[in-house]
Amino acid sequence: MATLDDVAHGPVHEGPKTKRKLTGYWLIAPGAIWLGLFFVVPFYSLISTSLFDPNGSVLTGYSMTWHIQNYFDAIDQYKVQLWRSLWYAGLATGFCLVIGYVLAYAIAFKAGRWKNLMLILVIAPFFTSFLLRTLSWKLILADDGFIVDSLQWMHILGANDRLLATPFAVIAGLTYNFLPFMVLPLYASLEKIDIRLIEASSDLYASPIRGFFKVTFPLSMPGVVAGTLLTFIPAAGDYINAQLLGSPNTRMVGNVIQSLFTTQGDYAAAGALSVTLMLIIVAAVLMWVRTAGTEDLV
């Protein structure tokens, strides 16, 4: 029986609307499947591993007993390495921000026709493997290398002092390896700034420094936030730099997790430590994004 609305506006055809809705679901299906296979399933496995019975072994097998105490034990036993990882990652991110901002600013506003060449030089290290780039720093910072000899000649380092196997070497390696992750978002953000806004601040008698902090830097905040996240997150979980450039006194939580999984076979502690690190990073990221207030990023 026809309703009054049908009489007034004619019959309603739901076919095209339904097809449009289904088209949206089909378009997001590949991404949803990818996330399910490569994030949800591994994350569920990691959570399960972190709740294993700590008395399990390769011979007796492992079973999930919801042993929450694994988390408290792992944090208590490896809190030094956990804190050290966050500290090293924070320092490396700060150094990358300072160096990367200067470099990105020069490329965006001063490079002129050399802009593309400079961008290629920024990403050029990616043409070699992460491992080789890190190993090269062992040669650069070697005890008989040019840098150590020069610093000893200038009496900045003592005769028996060294750079390799120190926190300096680990942080330098982290800064070098993750610098492009800071430079590229900063460059993309700086290049979008209307240069007339910077000129206007000068016309209004703002000094170059005041104009930078009032105009340029606030407008580049999306790039700052994106760069700091892309640098801090992988740096906190990195273990290659500490393994090759550091010493037992500079071990990061990534080294501990790798050792627990592959050498000691303590899967429960390794899983608990991995989940703890992940939760700390997520909390830090949310606080940073909320503090920065960059709605363009999220």
Structural class: mainly alpha
Q: What low-confidence regions span 5 or more consecutive residues with pLDDT below 50?
A: none
Helix content: over 70%
| Total number of helices | 13
Largest sheet: none
The SSE order reads HHHHHHHHHHHHH
Roughly what fraction of the amino acids lie in strands? under 5%
What does this structure look like?
By secondary structure, this protein is mainly alpha-helical. The chain has 13 helices and no strands.
Concise overview:
With 298 residues, the protein is mainly alpha-helical. It is built from 13 helices and no strands.
Question: What is the element layout, followed by pairings?
Answer:
Blueprint lengths: L3 H6 L5 H36 L18 H42 L4 H9 L6 H11 L5 H8 L13 H25 L3 H9 L4 H12 L1 H17 L2 H6 L7 H12 L2 H26 L6
